[in-house]
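User: Could you go from structure to sequence for me? I need the amino acid at each position, not a summary. Structure tokens:
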């Protein structure tokens, strides 16, 4: 069974990992929480967390802000990790963190590609890789939302994608570009081909299913509807139970696909999967879409989060006209 991190030297961290695995925390959450719990323990000279409390937690979180200058979101993740450790795992609820210093580091403006740059990026890709990147841009999906899609989540008739359990465990519908329909149908055909092969393996347990769904529909794990739209190339063992399954395409591998394509396209901006989501939102607003519509498409709880894209539109060529342009026109 694949380990999430090397726990061989820490029975305590291994125990925390097993606690989270049994309770079906996502592997991404487990990896993140273990990282910050380990950092907290090392910061406090490897004292056992049960012998520490609010004072040590505040000292660590303040260190992240003052010495390491982390962003507010990073500090929040570290706090969530340690709060889980005390409130859930140890059963020693933390008191009020009245001495906590909150990060004031401003969020960066999003990196946005022009539509020509998006076209250049896509021109460097083919097949499934091109389809994944096109959906990130065309539907404004987060990377993990894309990779967790099941074949049933594509609504061909209404040109929409169903996103289940997105950030904040919320569901939403997003637009689907009609130009992708043929490629999506071909992708589902490929998923079906893989499934037929997998079913010949006597120990194949089917795709991972949410616990309640697995109990209610025991045959769903081997049905085409529930297979991941973008499956992994190989079967692997489920770290929760050891069952042989086909997981979805790897997140880090998708990052590499995008990075290499950007280099080949000679795009000098820092292009990531989230850059395509930023570009989706900005181009929607640029085309005249209402900000509330964009908020719904992105799945933002607060419209102020979406408003960051209006700052992109209101600067440079999209907003204020440079006074140099007036001088240049007057110059003979």
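Assistant: Here is the amino acid at each position, in order:
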């Amino acid at each position: 069974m694949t380990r999430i991190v090397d726990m061989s030297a820490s029975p305590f961290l291994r125990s925390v990992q097993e606690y989270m695995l049994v309770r079906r925390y996502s592997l991404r959450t487990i990896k993140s929480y273990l990282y910050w719990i380990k950092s907290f323990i090392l910061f406090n000279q490897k004292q056992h967390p049960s012998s520490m409390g609010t004072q040590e937690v505040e000292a660590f979180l303040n260190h992240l802000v003052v010495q390491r200058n982390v962003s507010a979101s990073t500090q929040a993740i570290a706090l969530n990790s340690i709060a889980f450790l005390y409130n859930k795992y140890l059963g020693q609820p933390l008191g009020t963190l009245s001495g906590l210093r909150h990060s004031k580091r401003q969020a960066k403006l999003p990196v946005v590609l022009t539509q020509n740059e998006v076209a250049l990026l896509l021109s460097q890709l083919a097949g499934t890789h091109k389809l994944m990147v096109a959906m990130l841009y065309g539907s404004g999906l987060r990377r993990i939302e894309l990779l967790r899609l099941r074949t049933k989540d594509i609504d061909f008739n209404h040109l929409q994608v169903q996103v289940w359990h997105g950030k904040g465990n919320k569901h939403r519908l997003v637009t689907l570009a009609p130009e992708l329909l043929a490629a999506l149908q071909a992708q589902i055909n490929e998923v079906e081909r893989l499934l037929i092969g997998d079913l010949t393996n006597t120990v194949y347990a089917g795709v991972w299913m949410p616990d309640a769904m697995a109990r209610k529909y025991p045959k769903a794990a081997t049905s085409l509807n529930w297979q991941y739209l973008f499956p992994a190339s190989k079967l692997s063992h489920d770290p929760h139970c050891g069952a042989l399954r086909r997981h979805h395409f790897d997140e880090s591998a998708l990052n590499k696909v995008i990075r290499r394509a950007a280099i080949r396209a000679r795009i000098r901006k820092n292009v990531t999967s989230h850059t395509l989501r930023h570009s989706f939102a900005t181009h929607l607003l640029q085309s005249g879409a209402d900000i509330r519509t964009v908020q719904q498409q992105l799945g933002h709880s607060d419209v102020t989060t979406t408003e960051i894209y209006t700052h992109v539109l209101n600067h440079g060529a999209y907003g204020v006209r440079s006074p140099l342009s007036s001088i240049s026109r007057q110059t003979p």
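One structural detail worth keeping in mind: Residues 72-90 form the longest helix (19 residues).
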